[in-house]
Amino acid sequence: MAVAELSTPSFINTRLVHPSKLSFSTTHLHSHRRLAFPPLSRTHNARISCSLAPNQVQAPAPAQTEEPKNKPECYGVFCLTYDLKAEEETKSWKKLINVAVSGAAGMISNHLLFKLASGEVFGADQPVALKLLGSERSFEALEGVAMELEDSLFPLLREVIISIDPYEVFQDVDWALLIGAKPRGPGMERADLLDINGQIFAAQGKALNAVASRNVKVIVVGNPCNTNALICLKNAPNIPAKNFHALTRLDENRAKCQLALKAGVFYDKVSNVTIWGNHSTTQVPDFLNARIDGLPVKEVIKDHKWLEEEFTHKVQTRGGALIKKWGRSSAASTSVSIVDAIKSLVNPTPEGDWFSSGVYTTGNPYGIAEDIVFSMPCRSKGDGDYELVKDIKFDDYLLKRITKSEAELLAEKRCVGHLIGQGIAFCDLPEDTMLPGEM
Ligand SMILES: NC(=O)C1=CN([C@@H]2O[C@H](COP(=O)(O)OP(=O)(O)OC[C@H]3O[C@@H](n4cnc5c(N)ncnc54)[C@H](OP(=O)(O)O)[C@@H]3O)[C@@H](O)[C@H]2O)C=CC1
Ligand SMILES: O=C([O-])CC(=O)C(=O)O
């Protein structure tokens, strides 16, 4: 049996031994101990214990013994132990947080993971553990991702595990970024997509409910993301519904860019942009409440016909326009928008401004149907939570558009009744229901 000798708990002083070359010995992590690693297995992942407890962990998770039966599997250099308290420059760092990413071998993740590990998302004093969820099919690609993370030498990246089991990946997670989903293929009905992807998010909701931190924040990216988020939260009744988000931040960013272009200003001058509704072509980019340089958009952009027609359509179909150019859907800008969405929750929202997120509608002050996930304007104190913005103006144009997106989401919800404990599915989707990328 090959065994790695670790003479110190510090990360930088340990010897690197690749786990695939070693077999299991012990998981006790103290200085001056013998440590070896299990061979890579596709069903069981190893998470190495460390001297830091994850933040906010209250989940009634299966008891973690020192040698759990299904010991999760760490990856390569991340199997080496460390002790943040032992190094001068890391003593002041915060407690490790656990971040799960599904679809981790996909295009969006390929951009996102490196941002998460670099410190640009959670801060330069926030060590992270990345827990990557893939599938049997993509397991080798997932190993490739983990190898690239190893080679990037990120000081803040203290643990990486790869797995195809959501119950292992979601154990004690503080954030779950749910990206993995099946794209709609040629000839596939939207109802089929809702069902196929809905099954994934129902299973992941159940796993989060069982093993994640009770305070986990969940951002659903995989499409159709609003209804997937609804399915996920319905299958996780022990986690507050408020903690679930569907990503509409990319749409907000796209809207800001178009307004800036038309007004001839740089996009940092555009604020208070809400995307209402579904992440689909019925989404409503709100120019009534948006501001440019502090002024109402309609005072700066006098061409109101452009706002109602061209601007709205451009934002709704930006994903499709990009696919036509690239031959694949937005990945880099989506990952940037996921970073923006997280940062908006962990930093106080600038005075007077807000951000868009697809959130649970129950108790909303706008009269939008309850019990769906709808993009609305939010503000955060920076504690991971948010409040809906109250002082919002509506006019007939805005209300009519919002109603259309609301009707679409209610129809999507009827299609997934079987996945949310609401009886038999009945699918009567509007003809023109499309993802942004389907135009
Ligand atoms: N909300 C938003 O603003 C946006 C959302 N999206 C959506 O994000 C999702 C991911 O996009 P992207 O990263 O570009 O896509 P990729 O195809 O590159 O990656 C998708 C990942 O999803 C996983 N996946 C595919 N089918 C299944 C399945 N049946 N069960 C579980 N996992 C599955 C794949 O994992 P594996 O290889 O392991 O099977 C793959 O790694 C898509 O649904 C896309 O529509 C995209 C852009 C914007
Ligand atoms: O439709 C897609 O898969 C891509 C998408 O969501 C977008 O670009 O907004």
Which sequence of strands runs across the widest sheet? 5-4-3-6-7-8
Helicity, as a percent range: 25-40%
Report the sheet with the most strands, covering strand number, pairing sense and barrel closure.
6 strands, parallel
**Helix count, DSSP H or I runs of 4 or more residues:** 11
What is the name of the CATH superfamily of the domain at 249-419? Lactate dehydrogenase/glycoside hydrolase, family 4, C-terminal
Hetero ligands: NADPH dihydro-nicotinamide-adenine-dinucleotide phosphate, oxaloacetate ion
What is the string of helix and strand elements?
A: EEEHEHEHEHEHEHEEEEEHHHHEEEH
Keywords: Chloroplast, Disulfide bond, NADP, Oxidoreductase, Plastid, Transit peptide
Organism: Rosa chinensis (China rose)
Domain Lactate/malate dehydrogenase C-terminal: 248-416
Subunit structure: Homodimer.
Task: Describe the fold and architecture.
Keywords: Chloroplast, Disulfide bond, NADP, Oxidoreductase, Plastid, Transit peptide. InterPro entries: Lactate/malate_DH_C, Lactate/malate_DH_N, Lactate_DH/Glyco_Ohase_4_C, Malate_DH_AS, Malate_DH_NADP-dep_pln, Malate_DH_type2, NAD(P)-bd_dom_sf. With 439 residues, this protein is an alpha/beta fold. Among the domains are: 52-77 and 84-180, 3-Layer(aba) Sandwich (Rossmann fold), CATH 3.40.50.720; 249-419, L-2-Hydroxyisocaproate Dehydrogenase, Chain A, domain 2. The protein is 31% helix and 14% strand. It contains 11 helices and 16 strands. The chain has helices at residues 107-118, 139-151, 166-169, 190-211, 225-234, 249-263, 297-300, 304-316, 318-326, 332-346, 396-415; strands at residues 4-6, 33-35, 97-102, 128-133, 157-163, 175-178, 217-220, 244-246, 270-271, 274-276, 284-286, 291-292, 295-296, 355-360, 373-379, 387-388. The strands form 5 sheets. It has a 6-stranded parallel sheet, with helices on both faces. Helix 1 (107-118) links the parallel strand 3 (97-102) and strand 4 (128-133). Helix 1 (107-118) packs across helix 10 (332-346) and helix 4 (190-211) runs parallel beside helix 5 (225-234). The longest helix has 22 residues, at 190-211. The protein is globular, with a radius of gyration of 23 Å. The N and C termini lie far apart (57 Å). The chain binds NADPH dihydro-nicotinamide-adenine-dinucleotide phosphate and oxaloacetate ion.
